[in-house]
Design goal:
This protein is mainly alpha-helical. The chain has two domains: 154 residues, no CATH class; 191 residues, no CATH class. The chain has 16 helices and two strands. The chain has a two-stranded antiparallel sheet. Helix 9 runs antiparallel to helix 10, helix 12 packs antiparallel against helix 13 and helix 14 runs antiparallel to helix 15. The relative contact order is 0.10.
Length: 367
């Protein structure tokens, strides 16, 4: 994480309309009140879905995470670094940029409305909130996307703790052919994003990473709308076919795909070194996918997790260390061991989030 006056941040800030500045200042001051009123207006919808208390707790958790990150990372706001980014006023120091607390609240409130009639309203509110924070000059794009991930992450934790009494997601077992098909898609998407990162970095240099990060965000929004439509019974034939081919029965609608994308976005939000980011993508996409495919054929149960095999864990390690060594050198060994352990231990979170978290902690400690 570093302050970066990327092309997208600069463009959004450059939209200089008096009414837009006034709206941005209004949201700056009154976002908590706006969302409190909105939640109360749709409280009955949340109660019917048994999500009202979860939403309040998710907002509190997101606020706590934002506070911790702000005052441990201490990333200056755009308007602190460049006075040209001051439209109304710049928050007085000490007040930091990463992540966006307004957007974290917005996405924590958006998450429980997926599949309800109020979803479009809260989706627009979340997008408007993020746009106005950048336009006002108080946040970089990366801050807003970080807030987006934190909000959804906070609601997911609260939802699973309250709903299941555990953070472990349980799904029905599936046949080997289905899992291989699913993991091949998992690997292919990851490799595509990796190639996109390398290509955009080569062409656009410093802006390449943020362009890909923004593309991933747009893809996640599209997936979120698709999941909402499926839950609402409005999906199209193509999405029905894709869900039938790749969705595990017994799992939440689109859960695996969405959190895989969120895990990738999390890597882009926190990791600035292109080579280490590429290595982390390999661990998440290739290592995890290969581990599942080989693990399905393994004979020796992993003593740390009876649902996994030693063969699968070794496949994770070997594929990751071989592919990441050309990118980060000897550090590939440590990264491969740590991410293998994250994948093989009994999951407290989805693998798609645990592996990125381990990569980020490793990055902060050693880079």
């Amino acid at each position: 994480m570093r302050p970066a006056f990327d092309a997208i941040t600069r463009y959004i800030f450059s939209i200089n309309e008096p009414w837009l500045t006034q709206a941005a200042h209004f949201f700056d001051v009154y976002t908590p009140l706006i969302y409190l009123i909105a939640v109360l207006l749709f409280a009955n919808t949340l109660r019917m879905q048994k999500r009202f208390i979860k939403t309040i707790l998710a907002v509190l958790l997101a606020t706590l995470i934002v506070f911790i990150l702000k005052y441990t990372q201490e990333i200056p706001r755009p308007c602190m670094l460049d006075q040209n980014y001051i439209k109304v006023e710049c928050p007085a120091s000490p007040d930091f940029s990463f992540p966006s607390g307004h957007e974290a609240i917005a996405s924590a409130v958006l998450a429980p409305f997926v599949g309800t009639s109020a979803f479009p309203i809260f989706l627009v509110l979340a997008l408007v909130t993020g746009f106005l924070r950048i336009n006002l000059g108080v946040h970089f794009l990366n801050d807003v996307l970080g807030g987006f991930v934190i909000g959804f992450f906070s609601y997911d934790i609260i939802d699973r703790i309250i709903s299941e009494g555990t953070l472990t997601l349980r799904v029905k077992p599936h046949d080997t052919k289905f899992e291989i098909r699913r993991q091949l898609l998992h690997i292919s998407v990851g490799i595509f994003i990796l190639l996109l990162l390398l290509a955009f970095t080569a062409v656009y240099h410093a802006n390449g990473e943020i362009y890909v990060e923004f593309i991933i965000f747009v893809g996640l929004l599209s997936l979120l709308v698709t999941i909402h439509d499926r839950i609402s019974g409005k999906e199209h034939k193509i999405t029905t076919l894709l869900f039938n081919l790749f969705e595990r029965s017994g799992a939440r609608q689109g859960y695996g795909a969405f959190w895989y994308g969120m895990g990738v976005l999390l890597l882009f939000v926190f990791i600035n070194d292109t080579m280490f980011l590429a290595a982390s993508l390999i661990a998440l996409a290739v290592g995890d996918g290969v581990a599942t495919i080989v693990g399905r054929m393994g004979k020796h149960r992993n003593p740390l997790n009876p649902h996994k095999t030693i063969e699968g864990s070794l496949a994770f390690f070997l594929s990751t260390v071989i592919l990441t060594y050309p990118l980060i050198g000897p550090l590939a060994l440590a990264l491969s061991i740590l991410t293998m352990l994250a994948e093989m231990l009994p999951p407290k979170f989805d693998d798609n989030f645990m592996i990125p978290l381990v990569c980020i902690i490793f990055y902060i400690l050693f880079f």
